[in-house]
Amino acid sequence: MKKIGYLIAVSTLGYLLTGCATTSAPASNANAAANTNANAAAKPAAAAPTADALLALDKQANEAYFKGDGAFFQTFLSDNSTMSMGEHHSDKATIVKEISGVKCDVKSFNIDEPQMQMVDKDTYLLTYRDTTDATCTMDGKTQKQPSPIRAATLYTRNGDKWQAAWHNETVIVDPKAPAPKADDKKVAEKPAAEKKDAAKTEAKTDDKAKTDDKAAAPAGPVKSANTDALAKMHQGGWEAWKNKDTKWFEANTPANVTFVDPAGGVHASKTESIKAWTEMKCEGITTVKVSDAFAVSISPTVEILYTKGSSDGTCDGRKNEDLWGSAVYIKEGDAWKMTFLMETPT
To answer: In angstroms, rounded to a whole number, what is the distance separating the alpha carbons of residues 341 and 117?
Structure first.
């Protein structure tokens, strides 16, 4: 699914709790309930997907996005799908409404390199490469679509079909490419009084923008009660990255782990992911911090944690920048472990 600065995420708005009645139902109602249960039990469940099958679904979603076909997403997205833009989250209705307003001029489009990861029997993750030459307009803003990008979609089982519950993208770049240099052109200094007036104007504009954004922000999903616990675990992961602590990652991740790094690289196994985290050439890192934590639940044993991660120092010759993180956690016994992580520059 193509987007202009929009990240589709997943949440549930709460667990559905049902109680048992203390009185007996009439025979006719009991028979009806029995028939309903029998029909539900007889309904076939979706078979385990293949990477190619999920890629075909994502291709349809991309094509529908280009056309602004909101109706397609009514059935493609799970009912608990939400959108995430940094710290802002919205629901399925908002996603469909925004996609319905998209208009694109597409010259070429291709997705390939699918890789699939099983989270559990009802939840799968797909990553792939997207190469597109297109310009899209949303909310009156026209933007050239970045390309190539690495995309990831979370699929959940709903009866006899698989639906998308979360999607994210990051631009694929060469991690060895030299960092961009600052503009050498000198800008004449403004008089102090003019600078002060400009600062006041900018502050007023920022305040108004924040007020407008707050008023326009959708209700969004319910924040998981597990957020603080997962954020603490995630902080531990950042500390382990700083300390190159392989043993921590071995103990606190499950057998299946995938890491999509900020450059769009895919590390599709536990061994590859740990190697990427612990063998990165970094210097001067003394502090790491996880903030803006927001967890959402898709099942009793699967949650997504959104964070902003920060650190000082440099890695691979570049100054470290803040990163938005989308992490899928799975519960194994009493422990929550990160099974997927995608990081994008803020």
So the answer is: 12
